Structures are given as C-alpha cells and as structure tokens.
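Hello,

Our lab assistant flagged a job as stuck in the queue for most of the afternoon. It eventually completed. Since we weren't sure the result was trustworthy after the delay, we are filing this so someone can double-check. Below is the sequence as submitted and the structure that was eventually returned. Let us know if re-running is recommended.
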Amino acid sequence: MVPNEVNSKKQRNEECFINCLPRDLIERVFLRLPVSTLLMCVGVCKPWQNLIRDPQFVTLHLKHASRFALLFFGKESIAGERHPSEAVLIDEAWSQSTYAVPVVGPDDILFGSCNGLLGLYTKTSSIKIANLATGECLRLEKPVKNLKGDHFSFYSFGFHPLTKEYKITHFLGDCVDVCPQNKDRFNVIQVYKLGDETWKDIRTPEGLSLNCVRNSCSINVDGTMYWLTEDMAANWQHAVMSFDLDKESFARIQLPASVPEDCASGGPRQYWITEIDWKISISTAQTYPSQPRRLVGELQIWTLDNKAEQSWSQNYNIQAIDYIPGPNLAHGEKLLAQCRDGNLYSYELLAENVTSKLLKMAKLLDFSPHKPDNMQSYICVKSLVRLDVYKKAGIVCRPNQREGWELEKWEAWQHMISKMEELWSRVHQKEHESILNGLLPHVSDDSIRQQIGMKIGQKFPVFPDQPRSLRRLNLVEQKRDLEALLARINNYVEIIKVGASSSNAVIFSRNHSEGEDAAET
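-- returned structure --
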C-alpha cells in the first residue's frame, strides 16, 4: 500500500474514533480550545464544523473565554510624523501581543468592544464591526453621512443578554436640526440593531450634554448603556444617564451625596465613567488647568452598589497617578495607569479604610511617542461570534491587509517598515557570508577558531534560516525590533573586529616563528 494512502486511512480511522465519542464529551474538549485552534478544526470534518458553528456552542465558548486588556492608540501626528492607529493585547498572564490587530486599519478609531467584536469608527460614510479573532468584518452605513462635528465617542456598541441582540447607538448633536447654538447638546439617540436595514431615532427625555460624552465616552454593562451628563443642581454637578438596549428607555442615576474636596493647587475637576468587574464606576480627580486629562492629587473611584436604590460606595483614594485610560481601568486585580514618562504601568492595590496605597508597580510597555491622553483601554475576549448572519444589512468581508495603507499619507510609514525589513535581510546575509562562510574557514588555528566560534555563539545564539514573518508588528514590538536590529549590527561589527584581531595574531605568531627558524639556520 502507498504510504500516503496508509496515512490517509489512519487519519480517517482516528476521525471516526473521535466522532464515536459522545457529543457532550467532544464539546467539553472544544470548550477548552482557543478560537485559533477551533477555526482550524472547522475544516476537519462536517460534524466538527456543525458543532463549532452551533450558536449554543458559540455562547458556551464565550463564557469560558479568557479576558484580554485591549490598549488602543488612535492615529496622531507627532513632530510632523504621522503615526497610525494601533492596538496591543495583554492577556491574563500580563503577556503582550506581538503583531498588529489585522482588523484595525491605520485610520480606524475604536468606539466599543463586546463579546469579541470591535466597533470601529472611520472618517468615511461607514463604520465597522469586526471580530477580533476570526477577522470577519461588517461594514454599515452611518446614520448621517458627512456629519459635521461627528466624533467616535458619540458611538457605542453593546449586547443585551436576554434578547441576544447587538445594538449600536449614536448621539446626534442638535446642530443637525439647524440649532447651531445648541451644538454641544443632543436630544436624539440613533439606534441600530445588527441585522436591521435602517437606524431609528429615539428622543431623550431632555437636552443632554454632548461635551460630557466626548470627555468621558460611554460604557455598556449587562445590556444597558451608561454615560455622564451635566446636572448643575446635583452636588457633583453631574449625573449618570442610562439607556436600556432592550426596552430602549432612559433613566437617571444620581451620584454620591458627599462632595469631593478640591485642593487649592489643582485645576478643574473631571469625571469619567468606567467599568470595573462588570460594575459601573465613577472616577474623579482634579486636573491641570492647561492639561484637562492630567491628574492632580487624589483619584477617587466610586462603584454603584445598587441601581434601584442609587447607592454608591467609595472603593479607592489613589495618589501619584498622572493619567488613567478608559473606559476599563482594571484588568484582573490590577489597575492600569499612564505616566508622563511615556510608560504604562500596572498597580496592585491595597485598600485600608478607602485610602489606597499603590503596591508592586510594574512597567508594562513604552507607548511613546504616542501621547498619554491618546490611549483607550477595553476588556475584550476572542470569540466565534459570526457576522455573516447579518450580511443582508451590510457588507461582510475579511479585512484586506493593505486596506487603508495604500493612501498617500501612509507612504512614509510604509517606507520606514520596508527599510527595516531590508536591513534585517542584509544583516542576516552578512552574518552568514562574512562570519559562517567567510571568517571561520580561513582561520587555520583550531584554538583561535574555537575562540571565535564561542564568541559568535554568545553574540548570535541563533542564525535564522527562515524568513521573517510578513505580519506587521504592533507599535511596542516595532520598537523592540529596532533595538534588536541595532544590537545585532553592533554584535556583527564586534565579531568582525574579533576575527580580524585574531587573524592578525595568528599571522604575527606565524611570522615570528618563521623568523626564529630562519635565524637558527
């Protein structure tokens, strides 16, 4: 029997054996597998495909999914140089991702994360809903095209656990209704349910602050969207508004009765709505007058304990933090915070009578040259949620790796990446040609050749024989990659110097020996 036929028969027998196992047992095994592995399993056989694509299995797998912190950096121009939008994932073990997220284009801006799906705002007439793990992307028309003054923070994305419906909301500024004097307020929320053909307008109970939404964004918890609005009669001069994604109804939640104390050296007090451990939280601190996101003094964090009774408890008073990312401050049992030095840190918190001390401060990553007030943090998962079931309402596709990058404004960035890859290729080639094939074979002295070989082993533990991955690195890994490249070049130069000096020593020794022999004769 031909070997290939033997292997094929063996594989069929193994598949048959596995499929003879009880479905619930196979399901329990699959629930422990990551999405990347399950996507490969889909192509193994029809029973596996049916199981993995079963909506009930997708929901169960989602409940078992590990949580990631997704750090998003919006596109910006720094010192005349354009930097594209970037995303970095941090898993539960606090390990960072290496490659860029393919579904995030250079001009995209993240406005929401829900069940492994990302909501991405674009400057075009459409927005995107993309599956972080599978790469599926759903393009939807915006409710109003070419809307002047539109902003990514006016969009939100959520899921209701009872109806199983995904909805996108959009705060529509009053300037559209020919009321330019009220451009900082809105009276309408536009709602779109995935699968529908149109958006619908829902009027708010009153005119609400659009500036508060822009400054604090919104969050979705357990099927309800929350955001801050002005309430000048309240102690904090703010209140929380909520919008139930199922009933599509509004409610107002008053903030704590106690008033935060301001210090004389601080500037205006700012408020942010955040989510910590699936609970609505309010973070507040004074800021610098000229830097409205840089904190001064204490950061207070309050959590909503009972929505019906509108009762709050103060969790933390935290010192010595410069910036906080939103809308998710915490990942696991640690707090994320940014500092002026361009680094992101994680902090373990110890609460003692509300006043908290920051413990075990650990540097996570260097996000420079991005500005500290240009970072968002979301908690996300990798899921099997399919978007092709909504294809009647929009265009479903896989993201093109070149999408957005072909624009002229990103040519310089693309050129820089190409030059980096070209340098790596040349360095690898020189290492092989000059050191392995050029230097060592010409050193006749065994001890010196061994010495050079040991030096090479220390400087270059691995000579890569395989080409580098074509996948684009994220911003953190790009900087590490550049540092590794410069170190590799320096090591190469050092090895060449060692080889040259060793060869000269051999020649000198040989000439000296020959001179002594000639003198004796």
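-- support follow-up --
The delay was a queue issue, not a problem with the job. The result is valid. Confidence is low (pLDDT under 50) at residues 176-180. The chain is about 30% helix and 35% strand.
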